[in-house]
Amino acid sequence: DSGVTQTPKHLITATGQRVTLRCSPRSGDLSVYWYQQSLDQGLQFLIQYYNGEERAKGNILERFSAQQFPDLHSELNLSSLELGDSALYFCASSVARDRGADTQYFGPGTRLTVL
Amino acid sequence: QQQVKQSPQSLIVQKGGISIINCAYENTAFDYFPWYQQFPGKGPALLIAIRPDVSEKKEGRFTISFNKSAKQFSLHIMDSQPGDSATYFCAAKGPGGYNKLIFGAGTRLAVHP
Question: Which of B101, B103, B107, B108 to substitute to test the interface with A, most A CBs within 10 Å?
Answer without folding.
Answer: B101
